[in-house]
Amino acid sequence: MAHQIKLNLNDKTVMEGEIGDYSEPVLLHKVDETKWEQVWDRLVREHHYLGYVSVIGGRVKYLITLGHRLVGAISYCSGAYKLGLRDMYIGWDEEARLKMLPHLVNNNRFLILPWVRIQNLASHVLALSVKRLREDWKTQYEVEPYLIETFVDTEKFQGSCYVAANWVYLGETKGFGRQGNSFIYHGQTKSIYVKVINRRIINLFQPNLDRLPNEKEEILAMISAIPLRNPQLFAELGITNENFGRMENLLTEHLAPFIPYLGRQELTQHFVAFVKGLLSDLPRKTMDPISKAYEGPDEIRNMSNFMSRSEWDTEGMIDEHRNDAACFFSEPNAMLTLDLFDFLKQGLESVGVDMQYCSRLGKTTRCQVSVMAGFAGETGGTLIDFALFMPEIWFSEHFAPKREKSKVPEDLQYKSKIRYALDMIDKLTKSGQFNFTSIGVDSSLGQEPAFLDALPKDMPYFAEIPGSLEICPLSPISSDAATFLGNNGKRSEEPREISVLSAASLAELSDVPWAATTLEAGDPYVQDALLPIQDKCVRARECRDGKPGQEIWLYAFKSDGPTKYALSNVSSAEPQEALRRLARRRWTINRSFFDCQTRLGMGRCEARSWAGWHRHILQTLIAHLFLSKLRREFLEQAEPETRPETTIKTRKSRRNEKISENAPLPGHVIRPISRKEDDSMSAQI
């Protein structure tokens, strides 16, 4: 009994091993409405991830002891008022549900104390508590319990103790919770487990898992309802009429993990239609034409609400996409890339639009600017993260009505593009999702010394730069070559000693010869994946305020178009080969941008709201990753022995890795940059 408990509540000695190693019995002590209930409340409030406030309705609380040691706490309360998968599993109608609800109980808290690490203890406790609950619930509330349910947050737990205790897994919740007399979407999906503890419910309703919907079958039905049209893409991938079914099954497998973040079936319908539209041959891949083509004109308004107003877990879906990309392209020696991508705009109503520098046009114009992260390796690459840059003027009082109309988050604060990029690197490093060993950036970021200084010191970078960027030779140049081609690539009037040159001039003046090679776009199945080039690498120094800085490599390469330039801190006995490997990674991600821009219409995003813009880009990246999967599945022009080998981790194996393995790599630290540096760089780009 609860009043007989004698425990040292301050004893936190670690308990390990297996439950069979302990001779003392595991006991449950019912403590609700006793003096020990406060102990139960405090333990759960301090150590359970959900905490504890109070429970309305029926409840039973147990403290768990092993001998004279307190090892945990568990409680039960009234069952959920409405739970779709549970109700389908039981098989009752609305009238029966309302009548039988008092017989349903919910395991709402289960805590094994952090210092107790005894194997099989949790499943043993569950079995004991079920036996006790049958009598205690009936005695206390004069109602016999028939079925117990529980919800497991799979971001934190695997639910293995419930499986071991023979509970039945029903699926995932839709992310809705009851508030008053209505339900609101909170986006926190959880796994549902149930256990029948009285045969009366079996005799009345015959609970059956076959009643539960097959989510993948539902998605496949949506995909098959309207054929996906893109003859050119199918021809390039080798998809013929007889294997359309395979392609639809692949799309079903690809989209299924994203469905729990949407919540409602009608949102799933819009999501499937939008992704299909992005993969189609529609000339304009924006909301209105996609909705007309794949749902009909009557659904345009609903599609608009789906993109901008409907409550679904965008952040959760972004993380799901990153997990999928990490599993598909999991490999060593990959590169994390950062680029600024611009969206040209005619009007001023879209979120984040302002007169600002557009790198695509090389001039100031009306546009949106985004910071995008990519991941590129030997087997291909894709875009994995993105952020919309908000110009500082958008945080002024004058723009307050626009912020409200665009639904910009109220707590959003101004950050420069440089700060967005550094924060993105820091976040992806700490996530442990991607095993990258180098960082590549475009010329907008690469020409900023303070940005390069902030990168992890132990990680090579490949920073594209404009040809006009000033570089210092290792020693001043005063030869005839310098008189022929002076600074900025112009002919000098008189011979003179030159200590600062443009990158283009230094590459041209260097006596290092051009060499022929080929850049490969990682994925051998990408059309035009091979790019013949000529390249050279020249040892030089950074130019800081007109003075020489640290030694770096200047890498130059040219094909049919203008010569491109990059700086790198790579340290290698064979620098040219190392730089070529990094250049290939950048070429790979450039091909990803080409796909997103030309095949999937990313640059034509017409969403005006904050949510609409982010959801359009997210679905574009999901479509691009599927395009990579299609290429690997269908294209067979590369001989098997020439295809790159890779180890692909499954989603499940990736998620089951220990949290400690997701810690940031040692030494990969983003150096803080000063406000002065930040403002200076922001003004330039």
Describe this structure in words.
By secondary structure, this protein is of the alpha+beta class. It contains 23 helices and 21 strands. Strands 10, 11, 12, 13, 14, 15, 16, 17, 18, 19, 20 and 21 form a twelve-stranded mixed β-sheet that branches. Strand 2 and strand 3 form a beta hairpin.
Short description:
By secondary structure, this protein is of the alpha+beta class.
**Class per helix and strand makeup:** alpha+beta
- Estimate the mean pLDDT confidence: 84
Discrete helix count: 23
For the biggest sheet, the summary is: 12 strands, mixed
Distance between the termini: 71 Å
- Helical fraction: 25-40%
List keywords for this structure.
685 residues, 7-stranded mixed beta sheet, 21 strands
Write the layout of secondary structure elements.
Layout: E1 26-30, H1 37-47, E2 59-66, E3 69-78, H2 84-90, H3 94-100, E4 104-112, H4 121-141, E5 147-152, H5 160-164, E6 168-172, E7 176-179, E8 182-185, E9 191-196, H6 199-205, H7 215-225, H8 231-237, H9 244-255, H10 265-279, H11 287-294, H12 300-308, H13 314-328, E10 334-344, E11 354-358, E12 363-377, E13 380-389, H14 400-406, H15 417-431, E14 436-441, H16 443-446, H17 449-454, E15 461-465, E16 470-473, H18 480-484, E17 501-502, H19 503-509, E18 515-520, E19 530-544, E20 547-558, E21 564-568, H20 575-599, H21 610-634, H22 651-655, H23 675-684
Parallel strand pairs: 4-5, 10-14, 14-15
Antiparallel strand pairs: 1-2, 2-3, 3-4, 5-9, 6-9, 7-8, 10-12, 11-12, 12-13, 15-21, 16-17, 16-19, 18-19, 19-20, 20-21
Helix pairs in contact: 7-9, 9-21, 10-11, 10-21, 11-12, 12-21, 13-21
